[in-house]
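so my prof wants the structure for this chain in the tokens format not the other one, which i didnt know existed until like an hour ago. anyway here's the sequence
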Amino acid sequence: MNINGINKNRAAITEFNGLKIRNNAGASDFVDMQNIDSHEYPYFSTRRKNYYLNKGTYGMGVANVTDDMHGWCAYDTDFYYVIKRGNDLQVEKLAKNGTVTVVINNATMQSKSAIASDPNWKLYNRIMVVMGGDIVIYPDWIKYNIKNNRAYSLKKSFSVDASYASEHLYEDVNALMCTEDGEIYALDKGTEQATIEYDYACFSSQTGYFTTGDPKTYAKNNNKYFFQFEGEGTNKKGNVSKYYSSSAMWMIQDEYCCIDFSYGALGYSTMDDLKTALSEMEYEFDKDLDITVKISGISNFYGGKINGDLILHRIKNINNQRIRFIFKGINIWDYSWTLEGGTPPGTSNVYIDTQKIELFVSNFTDFKLNNELYNDLDFIVSEGNRLFACSNNKHEIYASKLGDPSAWKEFKGISTDSYAATVGSPGNFTGAAVFNNTPIFFKENCIHRVTGNTPASYNISYDYYDGIKDGCSNSIVRVGNYLIYYSKGGFVYYTGNQPERIDRQLGDKRYKNIFAGEKEGHYIAAIVEQETNKTYLLDYDMDLNQWYKHQDNNPRTFRIINVSNDLYTFHKELCDDELQHTFITCIGRNLNESQIATVEDDFKWYAESGWLIKEGTNKKYITKMLFKMHLDPDAEISISFKYDYNDEWEEVRTISNTDNYPKTEIISIIPQRCETMRYKVEGKGKVIIYSITYDISEGSEY
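here's what i got, hopefully its the right format
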């Protein structure tokens, strides 16, 4: 027993923490709150006001908009998104000043989309990725160039008009060996039959001939191409060589084959129509393309061996009458047939005269040429002027060709190649990001990093750490030097090593359907509680390692987007019994009046503390409490206590600032005598609490 009298001391809270939903939450911690943040830390303060952009106007505030955005991305200070308006699917741009512009209309989406033939194509979720000055939209495979405000189809394909080709087959569709520039090799045998008998002849591009002497010598002395068949009997191979005096050597020429059409065979009325189509697909005449395309439909030519993946080297315009697709690395003479009167398998005609050799190929009526694009990708990111993607269906990771989001199957052994690799880890991919110039693909229990500078040096690492929880791919955000995301175990930060938990203050709560963004070193997440389906915004201050809760999320935030230095949230709210989209900034922004439609009104807020004087064995009780605070004009605050383990809050004081200027108040309160207690502050308008001081009297342990 204490016989020396009652001990008295004073305690003060001058540093207020954030959420701590745990049994050991103390006087400076809060087990629940709403609309509180850390911008006045170490003081307790209500959050900054938000701003509504275009609320109730065209743009994100149109009534009767009942569909979510199907995809979104930011470029500089503008925000782009795919949205369904009525029966139309279009891409819109929301500028920083709040204006909305349609940049790809429904007709263009349908004409460019690689999936528009699917009756449900408008329902697909989109992935929008910025690559250089372009925005790539998947699975439509549309590229929107921001500078020239044009949309291009990344699916580059041609097919022969069957009705036209059936009438004009041999004169309008043929395959020919040619030079790199698409000039047809012409036979210059003149009157000498010996060139055929000895299985060699002298070639120029189109003109020139020899009359006497050895054709190889003639070709050497006259800078001509020299053609010969090698091999025995009917198993012969044709090639073209040329003599180079600088090295005093004959060099076999690179093999090029062209497929030659009239524009009519391709289904175009005029060459100008064809040029327009080429431009829309970003093809140009006489430009080195060197992209891999797939040929199909030449079913009879050499048993179909010309079908498959070929390198499209160049497209050439022939006198505005014909077009030649020039392919690299294929030799249509490289098969078992003889020159003397023989007919290659699958060809309708071979003729040899004093001018040329030509192979007219049969059955072109279902000819198709296209670049192959993946249609089962789950996540796509951009890094190093390439797109990186993953597929759950094939358990593979891909990289596009350098600088070309339309080329995914370029495998030539050079640094600009595309890339594909199968991963052996179990489970589906759950998210993707780029961190420190490294593409990273997440599974729930595994993290894959793609390191290296070129496809030849790419290496996919396997780290069996906690990855992104399934369904929370939008939770991953870079904040400073960290990646923060939601895993099966909770929120973690990742620096390239083992992820570390950052949410132990949140207790045992589990979340789903998370969208997140970054603002001024804060991680802002719109969450849905796993068990209760409650929705609200969580605010994590990375520097303080503190969590705060913003408004209860009704209407629910369904998108959070970083645009330049600003953070926007999209909400759904009811307006005249119709769902309405509202566009706001998340944790405050300095906008001038011309940029905003509505400044948020004064909002309600509250915070419930942890326990006071819970520790120790002696009897203690609080005799007096002093609250020192700041109140803006029209702000109000109520203070309530919960004594011992009662369930009800008892309101003890309410004050408001009725003046038209801010003021500071000191409130003195004498609480009931109790063993332990908690306090709750709630109100409306901007309030800052500088300190809470309380006097403690201590008795004996009895």
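also thought this was worth mentioning. The mean pLDDT is 80.
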